[in-house]
Design goal:
single chain, 101 residues, mainly alpha, 3-stranded mixed sheet, 4 helices, 3 strands, globular
């Protein structure tokens, strides 16, 4: 448990994330659970995913349907259903800067 969230990685979680999207997904948030490809990926994306946890706390059970609805609308409008999604734009804008080695 980290920052009030359960984190899962590897095994079935990695298998599932690899099959989402056209190129797989590094991580995703479902309520107070963060799913990641592996431990290292979770370290990299934790700040971004934590923004989604905050969004979930604000929107409650509506978060996932509203997020998916935004993505569907954007896709139908010919836009990028991930990068143009306002939930993702906020998460990228507010995530903590990554430390570069």
């Amino acid at each position: 448990m980290r920052q009030g969230c359960l984190e899962f990685f590897g095994g079935f979680v990695s298998w599932l994330l690899e099959r989402l999207g056209s190129q797989g997904v590094a991580a995703m948030t479902l309520g107070h659970a963060i799913l990641g490809q592996d431990r290292e990926t979770l370290e990299i994306v934790r700040s971004h995913e934590q923004i989604h946890v905050d969004q979930y706390e604000k929107w409650g059970v509506l978060f996932i349907p509203v997020y998916l609805g935004c993505s569907a609308y954007l896709w139908l409008a010919g836009k990028d259903c991930y990068r143009d999604n306002p939930f993702e734009q906020r998460a990228y804008r507010e995530e903590a800067p990554r430390v570069k080695n």
